[in-house]
């Protein structure tokens, strides 16, 4: 992928920045205002959040004062009983101080307080999708997608999606967990893959300190973090790096360098290790 290409055209007809700003675990009115302000200054035009992050209201307050200068995309996520979906969407709209949401994701293929093996998960996923289609038609949401969906979950959804397939599948993806079959499947079906945990997780620095990652980063004169982000971006995969420090926010969008083919192969041969939750057992 040419890293000068900043946007992806989704199957919904809308465009989406390849690089978004993640806000997981970033909380507090002052902190949110500072990081949102800095992220917009350096060029981020997409903000990823979720009801579970408990920061939508603070993001909305920050955007209220900052938005006049920017064209911004908002991507919240949630999942649950379809009866609660519209209420959740309306709550997000109010918190984010907007009349529509650019992209809304089903956060998880399973349902809270429901066994992973229960057939209830499958039934509620279908009903939730139908509700999101309805809200999309009402203009409250522009694009709808999923998160943490395996090929099995996507196949089920595509069979019953009423001609509205998911525009995005947001999943854990990095050199230690490449999900090559899932990427191939999504590309064949026109589903944009967006990666989270691109640098591993806050509880583990194994990926950032991987000897091959460190070696390649040194050879290219970039940080391991920038290398890992560009590894995904160069494959046409979206990223949503989070950061609080100004330096990291700025570095996370400076990805106009090329990882040579040999280095890409080296990064794509590392031992596999999953850091986040595993959706493969959800019925």
TrEMBL record:
<dbReference type="InterPro" id="IPR023210">
    <property type="entry name" value="NADP_OxRdtase_dom"/>
</dbReference>
<dbReference type="GO" id="GO:0016616">
    <property type="term" value="F:oxidoreductase activity, acting on the CH-OH group of donors, NAD or NADP as acceptor"/>
</dbReference>
<keyword id="KW-0560">Oxidoreductase</keyword>
<protein>
    <recommendedName>
        <fullName>NADP-dependent oxidoreductase domain-containing protein</fullName>
    </recommendedName>
</protein>
<keyword id="KW-0521">NADP</keyword>
<dbReference type="InterPro" id="IPR018170">
    <property type="entry name" value="Aldo/ket_reductase_CS"/>
</dbReference>
<comment type="similarity">
    <text>Belongs to the aldo/keto reductase family.</text>
</comment>
<feature type="domain" description="NADP-dependent oxidoreductase">
    <location>
        <begin position="31"/>
        <end position="267"/>
    </location>
</feature>
<dbReference type="Pfam" id="PF00248">
    <property type="entry name" value="Aldo_ket_red"/>
</dbReference>
<feature type="binding site">
    <location>
        <position position="107"/>
    </location>
    <ligand>
        <name>substrate</name>
    </ligand>
</feature>
<dbReference type="InterPro" id="IPR020471">
    <property type="entry name" value="AKR"/>
</dbReference>
<feature type="active site" description="Proton donor">
    <location>
        <position position="53"/>
    </location>
</feature>
<dbReference type="InterPro" id="IPR036812">
    <property type="entry name" value="NAD(P)_OxRdtase_dom_sf"/>
</dbReference>
């Amino acid at each position: 992928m040419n890293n000068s290409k900043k946007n992806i055209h989704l199957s919904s007809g809308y465009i989406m920045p390849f690089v978004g700003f993640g806000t997981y675990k970033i909380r507090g009115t002052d902190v949110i205002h500072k990081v949102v302000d800095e992220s917009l200054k350096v060029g981020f035009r997409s903000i990823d959040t979720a009801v579970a992050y408990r920061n939508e209201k603070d993001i909305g307050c920050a955007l209220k004062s900052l938005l006049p200068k920017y064209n911004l995309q908002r991507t919240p996520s949630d999942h649950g009983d379809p009866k609660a979906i519209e209420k959740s969407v309306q709550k997000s709209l109010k918190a984010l101080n907007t009349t529509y949401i650019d992209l809304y994701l089903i956060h998880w293929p399973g349902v809270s307080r429901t066994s992973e093996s229960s057939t209830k998960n499958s039934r509620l996923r279908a009903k939730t999708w139908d509700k999101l289609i309805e809200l999309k038609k009402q203009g409250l949401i522009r694009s709808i997608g999923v998160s943490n969906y395996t090929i099995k979950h996507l196949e089920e959804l595509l069979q019953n999606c009423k001609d509205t397939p998911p525009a995005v599948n947001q999943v854990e993806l990095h050199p230690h967990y490449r999900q090559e079959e899932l990427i191939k499947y999504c590309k064949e079906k026109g589903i944009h893959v967006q990666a989270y945990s691109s640098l591993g997780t806050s509880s583990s620095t194994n990926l950032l300190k991987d000897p091959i990652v460190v070696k390649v980063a040194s050879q290219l004169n970039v940080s391991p973090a920038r290398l890992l982000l560009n590894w995904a971006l160069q494959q046409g995969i979206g990223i949503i790096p989070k950061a609080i420090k100004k330096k990291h926010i700025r570095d996370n969008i400076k990805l106009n360098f090329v990882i040579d083919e040999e280095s890409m192969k080296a990064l794509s041969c590392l031992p596999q290790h999953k850091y986040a939750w595993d959706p493969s057992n959800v019925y």
